Amino acid sequence: MGLLDKVESTEKDNKKAKSVAVAKPVKSTPAPKKEKKEKKEKKPKKEKVKKSRPVGLSSEFEIAPKLSRVICWWVNFVANFAILIAALFMSAFTGGSSGGLETTILFIIAIIAWMFNAIFLPFNTGRNLGQYTSSTRYIRGDGSKPNFLHSLSVNNLGLLSLVGFVLVFTQVGQLSNGGTTPIVMVSLGAIFMIVWIVNWQFTRNSDLNQGLFDLLFASYLVRFVPEEKATSGFRARLESMSQFGEKYAKRVEERAKTKEEKLSENESDKDSTETDEAPEN
Fold first, then answer.
1. What are the strands of the beta sheet with 136-140, ordered from one edge?
2. Strand (E) or helix (H) holding 63
3. Beta carbons of 120 and 208 less than 8 angstroms apart
4. Calpha distance 47→43 (Å, rounded)
5. pLDDT for 134-170, tens place per residue?
6. Does the pLDDT at position 95 exceed 70?
7. Across the strands, what pairs with 221?
């Protein structure tokens, strides 16, 4: 009987060991469902900060906006250089062998057009074709017309930079030959180009888009609305050019508005689709 008791006790111990060794199954907890995606907060639109009015400038004048400046620049560029560029291309392709009379006539017309827009109009009316088209003009703080030297320098700065580039490009190879003429020409051309770069940097970093000569002569490019428009004559034709600039400005503003509306609509549609596709708890 002692052996039987020992066998039974060992069997009971083995059963207890097996029951302890078997681990209890752990209940698997379901993974938490993804919460709904929060709606993307729309980025707040940057409020347009009004530029500070310069000291001494009357409240009746408004600083010309960027679009008016762009229109003014392009019109003056075409008026001053379009015919000149055409004459240069014609002379380059013909090589001077043929078409000499035509190119000479084009150069003469280009000089007349430049003198009319850059010298004659500013001297007599205080404005050029670009300013007539964009309805802008240069004034001083008290509303008076700036010195004629201001309009002469501003209107011809682009031409001087072009002349400077040509001088540097054509005369820099002659420096190795010696002589004072290439040195003078290259130096003069470099000065013209540097003045243009400095004026561009001043305009870029100025809150009122004043260039170097604008600061020197204390002048501002403002929106111009004549009190009494001329109804006939050459002056009336010049003032009628402002209609083209105003129409173009309205088109650009309408395009910008429609683009902003489309972007806002696309953002709202995107937010609504994201909320619909998000899984519910």
1. 62-63, 219-223, 136-140
2. strand 62-63
3. no
4. 12
5. 888 888 877 788 888 888 888 888 888 888 888 888 8
6. no
7. 138
